[in-house]
Amino acid sequence: MFEYKGIKIFWLGHAGFKIKNSKIIYIDPYNIKPSEPADIVLITHEHFDHFSTKDIKKVLNNTIAVCPEFCKLEFLKLGVKEILTVEPGKKYFIGETEIEAFPAYNINKFRSPGVVYHPKKDKKVGYIITLNGVRIYHAGDTDFIPEMKNLKDIDIAMLPVGGTYTMTAEEAAQAANAINPKVAIPMHYGEIVGSEKDAEKFKTLAKCKVEILKKE
Prior knowledge:
By secondary structure, this protein is α/β, with parallel strands linked by helices. The chain has one domain (2-210): 4-Layer Sandwich (Metallo-beta-lactamase, Chain A), CATH 3.60.15. The protein is built from four helices and 16 strands. The longest helix has 11 residues, at 169-179. It starts with a strand and ends in a 6-residue tail after the last strand. The model has no long low-confidence stretch (mean pLDDT 97).
């Protein structure tokens, strides 16, 4: 667990996080233990390691779901009544919580020649969540994309480092150095691709403070 200005951040493994202050927010829970009920669940895209219905079920309780349009039907099947669908580049509010959907896509990670794993046209997302003035960026599954160079005033950046489907440790460090957050937290390693060595390499290359969290 890492605490920043009263906001507690728990890494749940892979790309999953729990953010806790007056609200309990989950992002991409995957292979998690039963945990506190969620006020809000944010999903970046439809891949099984980010949109895991069996894990979402563990935290549902009058929960508001936030997701791209193409994930809405599955949330309806789970009985979620309040669903906010998002598009990259747009801002939304749930009470006082500001949520900005941010582009997330591949540039140089290919499924087959010329076909990336996460195409820009699919409108998969990352999120910038603003809580009590603290700006938290969860990058989703992405490469170091040009849009990141325009990110400003990010307090905490959660960046994938595992490679194959997302940034490598070196690429994530380049992203961190461009974004210049107060703190960076590596993610997307240790489950499907990547290892703690990638997180450690990222820490040595990033110029900002880096917190490597233990899985909750």
